[in-house]
Amino acid sequence: MFTFDTEQEIHDINGTEVGGQPGETPTLLVGSIFYKGDPVLEDPKTGEFDEEAAEAAVKKVEELSEKTGNPAAFDTIGDSPEALKKHVDFMGEVTDRPIFMDGPTPSIRSEAAKHVGEIGLEDQVVYNSIESSTKEVDKEIEAIQESGIDSAVLLSIDTSDMSIDGRRNALEENLEVAEKAGISKPIVDPGVIDIPDSGYGAKIIHELKNEYGLPAGCSPHNEVIQWEMNDPLHENSKQLRQAVANSIIVHLGADFNLYGPVHGAPEMYEVLSTADAYVAYGAQMGEGRRADPDHPLFKIFR
Prior knowledge:
- The chain is α/β, with parallel strands linked by helices.
- It has a single domain, classed as Dihydropteroate synthase-like (TIM Barrel).
- The chain has helices spanning 51-68, 81-94, 106-119, 137-147, 164-181, 197-212, 221-224, 237-251, 265-287, 296-300, and strands at 10-13, 16-19, 28-33, 41-43, 48-49, 72-77, 99-102, 125-130, 151-155, 185-189, 217-218, 256-261.
- The strands form 3 sheets. Strands 10-9-8-7-6-3-12-11 form an 8-stranded parallel sheet.
- It is globular.
- The two termini are 21 Å apart.
């Protein structure tokens, strides 16, 4: 195992920690809910959903989190301001875990951010996400300032320069925006675009953590859902390859993983808690860094 050269920050988001050296803090597993196609969602525009089914999905994730030691968060999506506010309200009622507030446009996120400040959920919400290149970034800065939200994902990608330098430049710009918005707990996401991007994404996460010391991760699921399997070797080929795509970023030091729908949590917690356990054992044996007793290492290998 390895130790990053730069001192690593650990952010506390409503009692959930994210960040640190490999093996120090378990990977934060972020599952998506209320996305288009989610079986609990009845009307994407208005945000109407099956409350009983949604709460059952949340409680299942929390149960898996307790069992494995991997902390949970929820990427809470809304396709309109009305929908996103409704979904965030619900999540604030049924869980105390971090809520990654996720809307497809800056205007949707901005309006929802102001609402978050009004209802007092600012400490629980992670703004997802800040991207300095958007035309409405000034509107987002103002909304975040008003809301009191102090944590945000910095989507640090430049589609014209997919190199590590391109991601670094995008991150620098995002950090300036985050500072103006009053974000004291930035979380770095260098993005994934291409189908085999998890390996390169893992390297970028490693490099940026080593340089900046900030919590970092990404969403390998974004690439896997595009993958059309040609002549699969096994009937569960896609699921098995998804396990590899999601676990490789953990092995190179990622602090959070947007693993996909909450309904896939049993498989992803199985995979990622095991990856975390191996990382922690390597850190313990190779670096002398002992994990907390609630780490997956001690939950799995008792």
